[in-house]
Recover the amino acids of this structure.
């Protein structure tokens, strides 16, 4: 499987990029913006199956990004695709929802301990926006506490970018540092009687820095602040949801949110997001006007039911954990053998590898570029994702590719 060209400066990927530059501003937008792609990485893919991707130039690699999260069972999972096809044969976007909406809502309410109700959307940003809207409607207040550096989506109220966004869009956000209960308490103090919600990601997964699991004392402080103020504790589980736990990701530390936002992995690549909420917020959820032309589409809901069923059947979280641990142990041994210092962080299902003495991520980029040439798609800055399609042989094959990456870093001195 080794791929012989590092950077697709010619070929199908390059041709597509050139055409895109003429009709798409900058050639691509957002997190897939050409300037953000790791060195030597292709932009276009033609097919995917299980944990393997094929790029526009026909190069195959073992995928450790899983479409930035969604492919929790692996690409084109047969049961999920069969369920999607069955629903598609009946109808997808109709004048109203299909029965599968009720079945999926019942399933989520049954699975997620705090959930008494749920609402569906399309993207993670929709879900975090709905959570904040419901919290504000329920409390009649404005301030939302968010961790510095956390990503909650691309809408004006939460985007990390300043272009096209007014100061007023962010006026009611108050910042704290993740896992720092004192800074959270100070932020709550600053919000005073206007505190509507504390919004936290399931764990700290800011780009380019070591991942941090939530400190249970910090999570309990967040719960206590919300209880004392009558505010909503919102867990943004868009990225982590269903990979770490089949309930919500804070279930493992025993802290229950009032509202949770889910999306990435919920329907194994079909576009769906969900907000689940506690009873106390149900009345406010009836008052907010949240909707979208495609929010009732039935195919992604059928795909979600099949995805959740399969995750439960195979104990997906444990399986991804085992494969992530195998990858982590193998990377650690290889780094040592090559005399290269690395730091590995995050849950094994969503790992990150950073290099010591690598402030500008040159080593990380060289590692990824060489590993990709040898057939494994890692990421130098963003947490990666395991799927249930990764088997031991895939991890071992990816480790062979990683060896080429470590050799490239070792040569940098
Ligand atoms: N919250 C978190 C924690 C995310 O990682 C993301 C992106 N996956 C979002 C919100 C926004 O999701 P989307 O890109 O689907 O709008």
């Amino acid at each position: 499987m080794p791929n012989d060209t590092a950077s697709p400066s010619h070929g199908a990927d390059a041709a597509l990029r050139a055409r895109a530059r003429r009709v798409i501003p900058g050639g691509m937008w957002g997190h897939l913006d050409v300037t953000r792609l790791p060195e030597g990485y292709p932009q276009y893919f033609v097919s995917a199956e299980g944990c393997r991707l094929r790029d526009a130039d026909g190069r195959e690699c073992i995928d450790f990004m899983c479409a930035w999260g969604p492919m929790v069972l692996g690409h084109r999972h047969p049961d999920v695709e069969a369920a999607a096809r069955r629903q598609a044969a009946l109808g997808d976007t109709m004048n109203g929802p299909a029965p599968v909406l009720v079945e999926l809502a019942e399933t989520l309410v049954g699975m997620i301990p705090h959930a008494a109700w749920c609402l569906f959307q399309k993207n993670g940003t929709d879900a975090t926006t709905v959570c904040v809207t419901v919290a504000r409607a329920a409390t009649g207040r404005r301030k939302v506490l968010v961790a510095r550096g956390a990503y909650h989506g691309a809408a004006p109220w939460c985007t990390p970018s300043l272009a096209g966004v007014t100061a007023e869009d962010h006026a009611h956000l108050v910042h704290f540092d993740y896992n720092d209960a004192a800074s959270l308490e100070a932020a709550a103090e600053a919000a005073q009687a206007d505190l509507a919600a504390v919004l936290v990601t399931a764990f700290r997964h800011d780009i380019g820095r070591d991942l941090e699991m939530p400190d249970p004392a910090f999570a309990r402080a967040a719960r206590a602040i919300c209880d004392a103020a009558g505010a909503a504790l919102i867990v943004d589980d868009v990225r982590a949801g269903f990979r770490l736990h089949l309930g919500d990701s804070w279930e493992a530390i025993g802290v229950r949110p009032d509202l949770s936002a889910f999306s990435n992995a919920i329907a194994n690549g079909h576009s769906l997001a969900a907000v689940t909420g506690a009873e106390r917020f149900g009345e406010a959820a009836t008052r907010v006007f949240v909707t979208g032309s495609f929010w009732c589409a039935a195919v992604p809901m059928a795909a979600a039911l099949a995805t959740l069923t399969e995750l439960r059947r195979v104990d997906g979280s444990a399986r991804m954990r085992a494969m992530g641990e195998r990858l982590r142990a193998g990377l650690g041994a290889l780094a040592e053998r090559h005399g290269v210092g690395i730091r590995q962080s995050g849950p094994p299902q969503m790992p990150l590898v950073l290099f010591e003495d690598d402030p500008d991520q040159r080593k990380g980029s060289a590692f990824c570029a060489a590993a990709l040439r040898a057939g494994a798609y890692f990421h130098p800055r963003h947490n990666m994702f395991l799927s249930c399609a990764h088997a031991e042989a895939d991890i071992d094959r990816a480790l062979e590719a990683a060896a080429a990456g470590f050799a490239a870093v070792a040569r940098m001195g």
